[in-house]
Amino acid sequence: MARAKHYQASTYKARTSVGYLVKRAQTAMVNGIEPAFAEHGFNLMQWIVLIYLRDGIALNAKDICAEFQYNSGALTRVIDQLEERGYIERRRSRNDRRSVELHLTDSGRELVKSLVPVVVDRLNQALSDFTRAEVSELTRLLNKLIAGSQSMASAGEAA
Amino acid sequence: MARAKHYQASTYKARTSVGYLVKRAQTAMVNGIEPAFAEHGFNLMQWIVLIYLRDGIALNAKDICAEFQYNSGALTRVIDQLEERGYIERRRSRNDRRSVELHLTDSGRELVKSLVPVVVDRLNQALSDFTRAEVSELTRLLNKLIAGSQSMASAGEAA
DNA sequence: CGGCATTAGCTGCCAAGGCAGACAATATCA
DNA sequence: TGATATTGTCTGCCTTGGCAGCTAATGCCG
Question: Ranges for the HTH marR-type domain (chains A, B) (predicted)?
Fold first, then answer.
C-alpha cells in the first residue's frame, strides 16, 4: 500500500515523534492526577475500575481487561483490594458461573461521586489553554491514532 | 482564573476523557512497537536510551531521567544491561567526577542505525490514515497538553 | 582552609504489571 | 451423551519502576 511518509529514517529524531509525545503526555497527566488519588489512599488503576463500573463500561474483570488493555492477573489483585475496602462486591453470575459480576457498593458509589469533581477539575486545568475546538480536535485525532496503532500492532503480527 | 469547563462533573464519562484517550494511545503504540524490539532482544526503555545518546539529547543518566521522566535507580539498571552487551560505555567525566558520560560504541551506533527504519515504519503505519496537516496538528496539541499537564501537576502541589 | 549543602549515581527494598499455568464452568460437536 | 476446546478467573513467578538511603565528588560559603 502506498503510505504517507510522515517520518523518514534519515531525519528521524526521537523528540519530535508522536510516540514520544504521547508517552510524555501520558506521564505528565498521570503525575498530575495521582497525588489527588493518593490523598484518598488510591491509585489510578483502582480509580479506573471504579469509574468503569459506575459508567457501566464493564460488568466483570474480563471486560475491564479488554477495554483498558490490562492484565487479568494484575486486575484480580486490584479487585481484591477494592473488595477488602468495601467499595465493590463480587457476585458469581447465575447465567455463567465462570464469570464474576462486579458491583459498586453504596460506599463505592459515594466515593466515586466525591472523586469525580477532583478528576474533572484536574482535566480542565490541563486543558485550560485549549479552545473547545482544540479539545474536540485532539479527541478526534487521538481516537484516530488509537485505531491506527492497533492496526500497526496486527500488521506486526503478520510480519 | 476563569477557566474553560471542557468537562463537567455531572456529565463526565471516563471513555471520552482526554486522559483515557492518551493512555489508550500510549498503550496501543507501545504494543505495536515492542514486538519489533523484542525480535532483537530489546525493550522500549533500552531503545530510548540508545536514541537519546545518538540524538545528543542526553550525555549522562541525569539528563535522560529529566527528559524522559524516568527514575534514576531504574535507569542505572537499564544502562548496566546496555553496557554489558557492549552497546554503550560509561566514562567518568574529567570536569565533574561525580558525573558519568555515556557513549555509544560502534556496535551501538550500528544497532541504532539498523533499528531506526523499523521504528519509522511502525510510526508511519500508525499514522497511515493521517494527512500531513493532521500529524502536525496532533503534534502541536500534544505539546500543548504536555505543557498544560505539567502546570496541573505543580498546581496540585500548591493545594 | 574547614564545614555544610548539593549533586550524580548506585543499591536495597517494595509494589505493580506481564506471563504462564491451573482450575472450574461452559460451549461445541461428533 | 461424551470428548474436546474454550472461557473467566485466580495463583505463582519474574521483571520493571518508584522510593529512600548511601557514597563520592563538588560547590559554597565563612
Answer: 15-147
